[in-house]
Design goal:
homodimer, about 400 residues, alpha/beta, Rossmann fold, Dihydrodipicolinate Reductase, domain 2, Alpha-Beta Plaits, 6-stranded parallel beta sheet, 14 helices, 17 strands, about 35% helix
Amino acid sequence: MKIAVMGYGTIGSGVVEVLRINHEKIARRAGEEVEVKYILDLRDFPGDPMEDKIVHDYKIIVEDPEIGIVVETMGGVEPAYTFVKAMLEAGKQVATSNKNLVAAKGAGLIAIAREHGVNFQFEASVGGGIPIIRPLNKCLTADEIEEISGILNGTTNYMLTKMTDEGADFDAVLKDAQEKGYAEKDPTADIKGYDPCRKIAILTSLVCGKQVDFEDIYCEGITEITPTDIQYAKAMGRSVKLLASSRKEGDSYSCMVAPFLLPDSHPLCGVNDVFNGIFVHGNVLGDAMFYGSGAGKLPTASAVVADVVDMVKHQHTNIYIDWKPEKMELIDYKESTNAFFVRTSSKKQDIENAFGAVSYIEAGVAGETAFTTEIMTEKEFEEKSAQIELINRIRLG
Amino acid sequence: MKIAVMGYGTIGSGVVEVLRINHEKIARRAGEEVEVKYILDLRDFPGDPMEDKIVHDYKIIVEDPEIGIVVETMGGVEPAYTFVKAMLEAGKQVATSNKNLVAAKGAGLIAIAREHGVNFQFEASVGGGIPIIRPLNKCLTADEIEEISGILNGTTNYMLTKMTDEGADFDAVLKDAQEKGYAEKDPTADIKGYDPCRKIAILTSLVCGKQVDFEDIYCEGITEITPTDIQYAKAMGRSVKLLASSRKEGDSYSCMVAPFLLPDSHPLCGVNDVFNGIFVHGNVLGDAMFYGSGAGKLPTASAVVADVVDMVKHQHTNIYIDWKPEKMELIDYKESTNAFFVRTSSKKQDIENAFGAVSYIEAGVAGETAFTTEIMTEKEFEEKSAQIELINRIRLG
């Protein structure tokens, strides 16, 4: 099997490396040798062992009948979409690690692949090396999945873990994460939650079989989390985690990306540093969790190559993926319900006037009052909290 | 699709229940309705809604061309093996939850299924509802799996959790587990470790592609664990867990079932009560963990029905499973290496004569001395510990 890799960055070069390191094992699993024939990139790589495989025009790959499988590790929606579409239409199978592409164009590309009797797979687009796409598609098929809650972004999980362990503040841990290469120079997609937002849109689409648009999901990052919040979390026996979550409600879903205060007994609470964890609740399965390296060169490449192995074995069979382009209308987040942890400079009398009976939290912080509320809708919370001087609020998980 | 269920016990009736509860969802996933036509059991079930589907002779199922898929939830090797073999030879696909059958006859049944162009699947045989068989077969195919360590028995994990939380002794928690229905009247297979031993044999077979015989695996249960051991574990920041483990060493594997003292930071340490957890280390993936309900009627049935859905979609395709009948010779467990926690009535001088420098552990227990050793082979440990008066020893994870 001759394959092409589009995009020779971190993940693309990881794919080449995994194919080299585990060459024999992969050939045994796939049933034949897997060889990289082309690498598409704008750049040249003088001195790189793969230098002679570099091409700059994707049409060379489209037009080569020897290429059966194409790996897309370029990132971004365009030109990835144009290239991937052309490959599928030319009867080539495609594996991608590109969450932006999958979140925006997944349903359409699955349909195009099906029309042409080939496959479009994207295990690496969510949870890096953690198997989650295929388990949802192939393993949890007897269940109604009622909830998915994931720590789907390693960068912010590293930052929150460090804030918890060291009491450091947001700016300091961001700088540290950038120095370690965990956060990008422009960290917006991570710290604002846009990255996990695309991932939960993909997972929810697979659960409901329809298109969930990430633009419809309420999304809050970790930029407002302070060492004082962490101090309260510890006093409550909880940890702050950035969750991307999706709950089935009637025939629709309630989705959200936001920091949550999880009790220490929750399986996701042990997911620290750059690790990812995905908690799934099925109506007959009960609770399950998938844990592992959610990012990083080799773990992510491992998932891409597993897709390649699967596609070598399914060269003339379409692997059914239940994700249609029809749009799923999500429940307005203002109707979704949570209990809240609240910090305020208002007096207890004002708090109780707004919220009724609350549970106060003591963590030795001067000049403010903290409490937790009953479960209520976001709308109710907004109305009530407008009556007090809010310092911060975090949802309880 | 008409199916038959062989064995109308806990899991078999769970399969019927899951098919009823999630009927629509399953039909959508499978692409057609799935209907139970026969239930094979020795007993009659007067008054049961499925009463009219009960048959007592498996040949009725073998000879009915309408039956495409058979579920085996009888347990035990015979007559399950005879029945399953006959079904496969008659061109019917089989899904089973029966670890005894799979551990003893898996490779052979996979080969028979392949010869007849059908499938033999067994997701529910390990880890109950947790997807692990399919992830190993289909997801982690780009990796050399270097280690699997699993909490694969919910009964003993419940017992150890209760001993840890309540300081209760073995006999008391066994009685409690029996009263709650977690442990059988004859609890031998659980408390002696025979159940997780079969499961790690299955997982190791799938990792290496050859037959691993569970009889070759050194197996120790939890019967020797006392409240004093738990007290020491807490003093060390560790927990006692019954692990079934498998480590790649050169071209072979070192397998063992035994209680281990895991540090509280280990992902498996948060796996409590009747839950199972399976930790996997791949050479490019790094660490991953799968967590969930390892037993129980509906979770296990969920995994069986997921196999059924997969087989409805693969009616004329053999799903490749890499497990050949050729025997894998395991490394003699006496050559496997671990560090040990040791309790002894001997004096420090005698301990140090035998073991050299050790780390002593203080947990306020009178009349004995406890310490941890360096990493050594089981053989070395046996020789050294023969020189002291041993009270108990537990391996360190």
